[in-house]
Amino acid sequence: MTTITAAMVKDLRDKTGAGMMDCKNALNETGGDIEAAIDWLRKKGITKAAKKAGRTAAEGLVAIVVEGTKGVVVEVNSETDFVARNTEFQEMVLAVATIALEIGTDVEAIKSAAHPNGGTVDEKIQATVAKIGEHMALRRAALTTVGRGVVGSYIHTQIVPGAGKIGVIVGLESSGSVEALTALGRQVAMHIAASAPLAVDPSGVDLAVVEREKAVLTEKAQASGKPANIIEKIVESGIKTYFKEVCLLEQPFIHDGGKTVAQALKEAEGKVGGPIKLTGFHRFALGEGIEKEESDFAAEVMAAAKG
Fold first, then answer.
1. What is the pLDDT of residues 274-294, one digit of tens each?
2. Where are the alpha helices (DSSP H) in the chain?
3. 59-189+280-285 architecture in CATH?
């Protein structure tokens, strides 16, 4: 029996890009034959998936599933926008969202959860990677619930029902009409998609962000040569303006610029038939925060031709 050494595992890993344990298993299955192990990995689809793992996946889909007083939004990335048009990828993303609604928002827990078609969610993702030929990854998930009321939702640039480029869920707590609340929730979700607030109100804005804004305002005011007491007032006024720009309830409502979102919600209480409390929201924009790799397409073609 051939002894599988660490050097053999490293050699196979360097040649295929597959994981260490997958390489060890392949070598065990093939008696240490490197070329046979490469074929074993290829047949399993492992090499194809692993080689893609280093590529930037900043495209894909954001999907939403809402059931009653509970809603979830997930982001599953791919390398190219083309994959977002693939029916199998779309079905896989929507299934992930449905599972996340029950499992919760921990990405590793979702990946380990059972998939309705057998195996785990992660195994389904890897199988889709091997079939389509692009790196894919479940990036994040967020959940919103209310005791009574609705979770409003909106998908911007919808590719397929329930999934697109930007997804928003927002909680509206109320004992009023579910039908009226649902319509209002969609309007508020559309506003969030367009205005990208940082928080519901000033108390929800990260203190580090506020301090950074204060530092910028202070430096600008100091450059004008004004006295310290005036600078303090300028900074205070500037922060109030900043909160109006980034806090959802203080933003001008996109459906009626003459009202803030808070005023629009208050006015809607008569139509809904009860008080309304906006409990929170989540806004996922596809690929936000992912540094995309710039590639020289002409150079890639030339390299391929030489290969």
1. 999 999 999 999 998 776 654
2. 6-16, 20-29, 34-44, 46-52, 87-103, 107-112, 121-132, 178-195, 207-223, 228-246, 261-272, 297-306
3. 2-Layer Sandwich (3.30)
